[in-house]
Amino acid sequence: MKCKYWSKQLFDLVPYTPGEQPKINDLIKLNTNENPYPPSPNVAQLLQQFNIGDLSRYPDPNSALLSQALATYHDVEIDNIFIGNGSDEVLAHAFMAFFRQDKPILMPDISYSFYTVYCDLYDIQATPIALKEDFEIQLADYATPNGGIIFANPNAPTGRAICLAEIEKLLQVNQDSLVIVDEAYVDFGAQSATALTQKYDNCLVVQTFSKSRALAGLRIGYAIGHPRLIEALERVKNSFNSYPLDMLAQASAVASIEDDEYFKRSLQTICATRAWTEQQLTSLGFKVIPSKTNFLFVAHASIPAIDIMTFLREKKIIVRHFSKPKIDNYLRISIGTEQQMQQLINQLQAFL
Known about the structure:
Layout: H1 8-11, E1 28-30, H2 41-49, H3 64-74, E2 81-84, H4 86-98, E3 105-108, H5 114-122, E4 126-129, E5 149-152, H6 164-173, E6 179-182, E7 203-208, E8 221-224, H7 227-237, H8 247-258, H9 260-283, E9 286-288, E10 295-300, H10 305-314, E11 317-321, E12 331-334, H11 338-351
Parallel strand pairs: 1-11, 3-4, 5-6, 6-7
Antiparallel strand pairs: 2-8, 7-8, 9-10, 10-12, 11-12
Helix pairs in contact: 2-8, 3-8, 4-5, 4-7, 9-11
C-alpha cells in the first residue's frame, strides 16, 4: 500500500526480489546459489577465539587488513581495492559514482536483475543489449556510444562466460566510459578480468565472498580498479555508511583468504558435481546451458519448467524459476552436495 509520505520516485520503484529463504525442515535448497559446504575451518577457529569485548568498538572503516590481504591475493596495490557490504552494495555505489551520465548505460537484456533496480533508484537511463539465441553475451554489440557498460561474467542466470580476450577488445574500443565486470561466480571456471584493471583505467571488477568462499551470511564484497575509481567509491561510501563491514566479517574474510588449499579443494568438488549433474540432466532430456558457475540453467524438451519446479517443491527440493520472457521455460539449479544432487536426479527420474 502506498503512503502519502513516500518520495515520488518510490511510487514506481520495483525492488529486487531475493531468492526465497524458506524455513522448512529437511529442505534441499538449490535456489540461491549458496555454497553447500561450510567456509574454511580457519573461519570457525577465528570465531571461537574472537574477543567479544572488541564488539563494543566500531570496526575499521577502511577494512585495512582485509584490503591488504586482497591486494596481495590479486597481486595489486592496496589503493586498487574497495571493500563493501556484499557485492550488491559495491555495485550500488558504483552505479551512483559512475553511471549517472547523459548517455544511457549498456547491459545485457538477461542478467542480474539488480542492475535495472539500481537504474530506477538512481534515475539512470539504460539500453538493454539482447543476448544471442544461445544466451551468449556478444561484446561486439556494445561498441556504441554509452554512459557506461556493465555485465556479469559469468552471466547470471545463464551461467555462460566470456573469454578475457573479448573483454580486452571491448576495453580497447570503449575508452570514454567505465566498464564494470561483475565476477560473482568467476572462481568456478571463468577467466577473471582483474589483470585488465592494471592496464585499463576504465575497468572495474567486482567480486564477492558469498559464493565460492561460502560466506554469504557475512556480506563481504569488493572491487578492484584504478585508484581514481576506488577514490570515487570511497566518496560515495563515506556519504552513505562509513562502517560497511563489521569486525567479524573483516576478520573472517582474511581467515578465508589465508586458507587457499581449502578454497581450491571446495571449488574442485563443486565443479566436479556440476559436471556430473549436467551429464545426468542431459540424459533426462534437459537442455543444459554451458556453465562456469555453481549453478546450471536448464530447460526440458517437453515438460514446462513451472511444472518441474512445482513437483520438486512438493519433494522439498527448491530451484529457481524466472517468469521473464525468453527464459520463462528455464530453471536455475544451484549445485549442492553430491548427495543433494543425487536426490535431485532421483526425483527427476521418477517424475519424468
